[in-house]
Design a protein that fits this description.
This protein is 35% helix and 16% strand. The protein contains five helices and three strands. The chain is flat, with a radius of gyration of 24 Å.
Length: 124
């Protein structure tokens, strides 16, 4: 064996030595959970201001006014926080995604809408 192999034998490959980190060093105070809060808003983070609630309701009402939309489209998640709208969930196809995006931008303005809608897989 070479010197490098002999020196590293029995040592932790992550810390380079025996002992290493203990659980108390990792859980939970040492975890940076800030990265968990960087994604787009979820349905449970709907803003409670009057403007946010009214904007969400107006978009929902406009979507419901289109009787030709799929059940998927009628059930998309609309989350408004600080006047910024996020659309999430599945829709039937690109045309539904575009239509719902247009409805939201007509009400909230293009700069205030994030269209995160997904196309649902085709049923067999």
């Amino acid at each position: 064996m070479d010197k490098k192999t002999d020196d590293s034998a029995g040592k932790c490959p992550f810390t380079g030595g025996p002992g290493g980190h203990r659980n108390r060093n990792w859980w939970p105070e040492q975890l940076d959970i800030g990265v968990l809060h960087t994604n787009a808003p979820a349905a449970d983070t709907q803003g409670n201001s009057k403007a946010d609630v009214e904007r969400t309701a107006a978009i929902r009402k406009a979507i419901k006014g289109h009787k030709d939309l799929s059940t998927y489209a009628n059930n998309v998640k609309i989350v408004t926080q600080n006047n910024r709208v996020t659309l999430r969930g599945p829709v039937r196809d690109e045309s539904e995604k575009a239509l719902i995006g247009k409805i939201a931008t007509d009400i909230a303005g293009a700069e205030n809408v994030t269209n995160d809608l997904d196309i649902a897989p085709k049923k067999k």
